[in-house]
Automatic annotation (TrEMBL):
Segments crossing the lipid bilayer: 6-29, 41-61, 67-88, 109-128, 189-207, 216-235, 271-301, 321-343, 364-388, 394-411, 432-453, 468-485
Residues spanning the signal sequence: none
Descriptive protein name: 4-amino-4-deoxy-L-arabinose transferase-like glycosyltransferase
Keyword Glycoprotein assigned: no
Keywords: Membrane, Transmembrane, Transmembrane helix
Annotated InterPro entries: DUF6541
Species this chain originates from: Terrabacter lapilli
A Pfam family: DUF6541
Amino acid sequence: MARMAHWVDAIPTFVVLTVVLFLPGWLVVRALGARGLEALAVSPAVSTGLITAFATVAQPLGVRWGLVPLAAVTAVSFVVAWVARRLFGHHDTELHPARRLLGRPQPDAALAIAIGAVLALATILPSIGRPDELVDSPDAVFHLSRIKTFLESGNFSIANPTLYPSGFHVWVGTSLLTGSADVLPGTNVATVLLAAVVWPIGCVALVRHALGTSRLVTYAAGLASAAFIAFPTALLGWGVLWPNLMATALTPGALALMLQAARSRRVGQWLAFAAALPGLALIQPNALVALLVFALTWFITARVRAGLMGHLAWRVVVRDLATVAVAVVVGLVVAPTVSALLASTQSYEWKDKVSVWAALVEVVGGRVLISDVLWGLVVLMVLGIGWIALRARAALPVVAMWLACVVLYVLSASSTMSWTALVTGYWYNDKIRLASLAAVPGVVLVAAAAPAVRELAGRVPALGRRPVAAALLGALTIPVLTLGLNGGTREQMLADFFRPADPSKVILSRDAQASLARLAALIPPGQGLVGRPENGSPLMWPLFGTRTLYRSIPIPPAGDGIVIGTGFDDMAHRPDVCEALARNDVRWAIDSSHVYWLDKPERSSGLKDLAKVDGVEAVRTDGQYTLYRITGCGLGAGM
């Protein structure tokens, strides 16, 4: 594994990842008739859908997925999109030729996005440290291994090796086919791209739709994209929930396009929005559920507001709300009965339940994974909600969206009733994911604080005569009360994810990686290795290409993995263990005094203290690791 010590070295990888993520989808949505910032914001979801779907189809057709098939798929999809628009969107208002070809540049929006990107990079890059730094989370093992499996096999199907939403992995793997980086640094660069480019683009697009396109609001949107710790900071390391990071980063852009299409009623924009949905589902299906929650919240709020203003009869409002309520209840009850995968997702249980009040403090005060309430963020959101209520009532549905996220969070964090899983199970009943989702409408509320502060400042005689100064004060209030007050907190959170102080929470230190790299060089190509997942050995697959039996932490609860994990120390009397070893061509074992903190040690009980196991022979010790050759089960004869 080649080291990538400096972020400058990652620039080529960053460029390739950006092109693969944006270009195919952007060409398609432009052919469908979407334009402007919304088209750019939604293009990564469309690209991911194209890449993942066609990479999966390529496998049964005997086509090895790569950049040439991607180029062909993009060209064909562009033509299909152009034809679809001609067939279904021919009633849309015709655009000026220059607008059709180039679009209409929006310098303020571009600068706002750049501001958000710079703030994100300034926070994220120093905290991570290096592009090849390993985040210490068990989920990272699975995600890195899946990308490596795609690259080594050439099979990028979502069913390789098991069915899983693989939009994130296919995008990263396809980009790494260029050879610009190894799996670990390439994946880290991909997550930085999502946090520092995709997220600000979506935030600026959404805020401009919700609050208008004034310069102050536009710049406030870029600043607000870096205001939250719950997103994207938390999901860069927690879990690691990289697919959820990608899905949430794409949600504001998809929501912005949905609102644009609903207002303009242009068929081309609806087609572009529809084209984004498969990609979101293939990244993380809960992104679709989030969009549905936001759409229903917007509809309900708009209906109630229409009733209050006399635009609709209350009997119509009540009828519509009752219809929505019935449909939602039926959907929640029926969905897990028809989807075993959803039922499994909803079965996740978390032990750290808190009181309702504590849950409210966590989600409203930003005290998620940290010990302090983010009072600056609270002040901004209060100001933003107040300004929306008094000056921008058309954006009240966004306040309702945020409240819906708060309710979901409280249910997940505090409720012990079984029925709540029907509602929060789409997010694995995980409050961290829901806190991150709350940042989507939360960005709009924070951005609304800028015009609120400007209005308050305008009442001060010295500033009232200087509107530019008042506007500047309004905009700068956002970074001062967030990055200024809590910059150290978010940096420490990321540093703890990548460099934990507790050695038991380090999966694989740099010294350990070096030891395993030297031991991996002793194993003939293609031969399998087994070791306790808790000692970090599964990472030998994505880091060094050693064919490890386990590629996740902990051991799967069924199949050959559990047979070997629990019976390896008794292979002399366990024919089933020998058969499992032979089926997987496992001829090497590795042991270590290092044990990662994760539980379920019973699944690997047969792989402890290999020096005492009959049927293995020590080959070399390097650091805390000892490599063994398996001589039992007749496997040693073929070495």
